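Budget justification note: compute hours in this period were largely spent on complex prediction jobs such as the one shown. Inputs:
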Amino acid sequence: MGTVKSDIEIARAATKMPIAEIGARLGIPREELVPYGHDKAKISAAFIEAQSSKKDGKLILVTAINPTPAGEGKTTTTVGLGDGLNRIGQKAVICIREPSLGPCFGQKGGAAGGGYAQVIPMEDINLHFTGDFHAITSAHNLLSALVDNHIYWGNAQNIDIRRITWRRVMDMNDRALRDIVVSLGGVANGFPRESGFDIAVASEVMAILCLADDLKDLEKRLGAIIVGYRYDKTPVFARDLGADGAMAVLLKDAMQPNLVQTLENNPAFVHGGPFANIAHGCNSVVATRTALKLADYVVTEAGFGADLGAEKFFDIKCRKAGLSPDAAVIVATIRALKMNGGVAKEDLARENVAALIEGCANLARHVDNVRKFGVPVVVAINHFTSDTDAEVRAVKSYVAKLGVEAILCRHWAEGSAGIEELAHKVVALADSGKARFKPLYPDDVPLIEKIEIVASEIYNAGEVTADKAVLEQLLAWEEQGYGNLPVCIAKTQYSFSTDPTVFGAPAGHVVHVREVRLSAGAGFVVAITGDIRTMPGLPRSPAAERIFVNDSGYIEGLF
Amino acid sequence: MGTVKSDIEIARAATKMPIAEIGARLGIPREELVPYGHDKAKISAAFIEAQSSKKDGKLILVTAINPTPAGEGKTTTTVGLGDGLNRIGQKAVICIREPSLGPCFGQKGGAAGGGYAQVIPMEDINLHFTGDFHAITSAHNLLSALVDNHIYWGNAQNIDIRRITWRRVMDMNDRALRDIVVSLGGVANGFPRESGFDIAVASEVMAILCLADDLKDLEKRLGAIIVGYRYDKTPVFARDLGADGAMAVLLKDAMQPNLVQTLENNPAFVHGGPFANIAHGCNSVVATRTALKLADYVVTEAGFGADLGAEKFFDIKCRKAGLSPDAAVIVATIRALKMNGGVAKEDLARENVAALIEGCANLARHVDNVRKFGVPVVVAINHFTSDTDAEVRAVKSYVAKLGVEAILCRHWAEGSAGIEELAHKVVALADSGKARFKPLYPDDVPLIEKIEIVASEIYNAGEVTADKAVLEQLLAWEEQGYGNLPVCIAKTQYSFSTDPTVFGAPAGHVVHVREVRLSAGAGFVVAITGDIRTMPGLPRSPAAERIFVNDSGYIEGLF
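Corresponding output:
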């Protein structure tokens, strides 16, 4: 592996096309592209609106088995598949999330694909990009400032300062801000109270931006955010503080999807990036819808494994946006399947067909789950050089018994040339007309039942438990008119269970709902199981220490 | 005044030229402009470097009398003068600061000029613009996170958590964040300590960006930031935490100056915006230097009145960047002079020559002060409709006795047509060769003497007082090698004295230095006199409540 180029070396060596040419291939006139440099652009809201009567292309979801430290390469496969579809002559667009800036300075690793399946300019995408996350941060924190300012100037709304639920956000890994006391220092600074910061991607504003139809809908949803409760326990909305208009102004540009390109100069939309635990983990509805108007095939992805990401993509994003996926790709690697079969990370390079087959139980469960939504499935084996022929054969024959095809993909090493077979298969699946998409549960069952349905159908859990206070809270929200919302379950991504150390395909486990939160603007109820951190920390030796601009003006150490 | 258009209405009605054409007029090739939309662009670092051997144009500073609630229109005059110079056939560029986003949601009022002397697109400039302030915020807060993270993971540097001086920043008016306790919530969140947030423009990173020669110098200065002190009282630098490289990466794009245009399609650089109290209050050195290479006349401004803004422009920016101003314009209004002469705000519309002449003492002092730097002066009377002929005559004859010309300017109402006379006069002054610029004090006098020189020469104070601890701190910094730095005095902008209610031209007053701070990266020592807020609050009825996107997609309520 000594001569293998790093992701950033490959990205730097790429020949970029001017973004106006990428846009032109999608039929976007130059004046409807809002350029950010020569290689990034936003697509104007006016242009998007003008496409509404056009026919939609086919929607393909890329999801994965439960993530392991061995890596699965979901974004890499999404990008590779998009390139592969273009290679076989199809008009395809990729839709992925924007990465968060904060984590770049913690653990090494960007989020723009890898190897020969990347979106570029990767440095920009991983740093400030077009400023969307900064705009989200500003809008969120403006609301926070307005809450405390309202209380400072007399608290006409009677906000109970013990029951303010709206925190502040920052796009930074900063554990010191998780729990803080604000408004210290005397009368001029307000009323001291406990609060804290979450990372920007955990903001409800991020989820709202990604689910809103357009700027008007965005403003309405922003107004519906609950910032806390009055002394009489009634909710205080952002609109009660007159915050919605100014927040929408701050997000006006951010609402427009970003267009970039792959290493092979194919169009990619990179827009929005909500957390996949306390939010729904998909790129924006606006980007996906726009892509569907401009291309015949749209390849998108959802965060974490299919138990979290695909479920939320289907039950929250597709349900609410009226999207109907035509096919799904489940990404697996031989290495990750072996880990699911009990192999330790240091032994992954050794052939172990028995453990691999055992680990395939995890894949089989995800295949079964995705089919429950009425979406036809193909498995992509994202190739690593350590994979043996016997191992690849074992996975193929395992999934064949499930009536599903598994296709070996070498896009990481070869770009689109290594993923042609998958591209052909995806076209066949999406064009087969076999998709009969339906969400897992209807809108009108009680909130706790929705949680139970997901836990039973997707996680294969035996039981859902919750404290009385949690159950009462769910009932209260139903009485307040929020009962028709979907649920967004925050659970560890490493297991079907709530225990991150349980690999494979556990069954009959207990899912304990520790806490519930209402994202009234985004439009879902979050059920938290286990520990969910909404503000990461930096590691002992943060990547920031090794990041710099070299003498040639290139950024080093970011990836 | 019923039919007078608002600033935003005028701005909206303007015919913008594509920014590439504005750049072309300055000889900037299209590929060296980094576009942000069609009406904003950054100028590439490579292009800037390539201009270094070119001859410099003439540098003109626009400064003002002490600000009053009546308004002086310093930015408006800067923009108007730039347009006026272009109108009379000169190649002129405007250099001004970027406004801070936070205050836009507090009190009404943008910072991109006014009337028919504005830079556009004003909404963008007043909101996210090209993301510079967000980048500064991120770089600042990355360092903050690295400080607490370093302590969390064992504190190898032995940082005394009681002596951490580096706070966090946000571009928001949020008084609740002024004084906070961080790292609460238990072992996983670090060591609880007192801290707080300043507004982003108060960040030393902002001052550094505005004083750095280039990206390499920026990185060096970032590394020299002092974040706090060890238990042995030695300073801990940002470079000790390995933060400088990653901070420079975050600021790579922000270092490139922003090009926009005036209402009359003349080029304007809008770049950087440090506070004019605890920092030096001028646009970036990079922007000013680049403008000087591309134009024959560069019109720039400094924050607040000449006692603060011009003094820091000369003693900090010009001294450190080797700039040599050729002329200065002191902006005054009849209304503000009358307030300085004791007239109440509600009586300003009435003619009052006696009070006006009394208030001219303030103007005379500023004229005298600017001349101490060896820079020839002209006074611009920024016209208001309530000004009477007698009043204008009175000011003209008052300053004539000082050997200075005062010129009535109607750029607010008439654009460049209303400021031709001033433009001609400025050309004559700048071309006269009379400028003999020198800073007020040499580098090698003790820090306390530098403060005394400014207080005595500029403020006309009788005495400087300071606690023993302050004096000892200054001596300690001198021993550590910081004695050659200029001083940056934080004082109320409303008076020559430290009492904001004393108008006119007070003399013999006492300047008490309450606190001193070392901005080792920016390269100055801050002396704080009186109360200086580094995090503003929102008013009772914040502008945010009235800001929204209207049905035509335009932003309302921002100005």
